[in-house]
User: Which sequence fits this backbone?
């Protein structure tokens, strides 16, 4: 299922559920990638996580940007 969701992924990729993302196709992970539970990636833009990466529980990677102008 990960191959269908992610834009690209290397070998030996393990993402422990639950896992949330906005689109999935903007996410690239490298070889020997592991994510513990509750990883969130808001991938409105490209997100690249390289080789030999270990993600701790409850981490969020976000490309979201919100208005900082009070008029907006």
Assistant:
């Amino acid at each position: 299922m990960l191959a269908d969701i992610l834009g690209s992924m290397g070998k030996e990729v393990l993402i422990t559920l639950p896992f949330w993302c906005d689109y999935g196709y903007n996410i690239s992970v490298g070889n020997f990638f592991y994510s513990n539970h509750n990883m969130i990636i808001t991938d409105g833009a490209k997100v690249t996580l390289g080789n030999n990466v270990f993600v701790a529980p409850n981490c969020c990677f976000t490309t979201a940007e919100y208005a900082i102008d009070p008029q907006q």
In short: The first helix runs from residue 2 to 5.
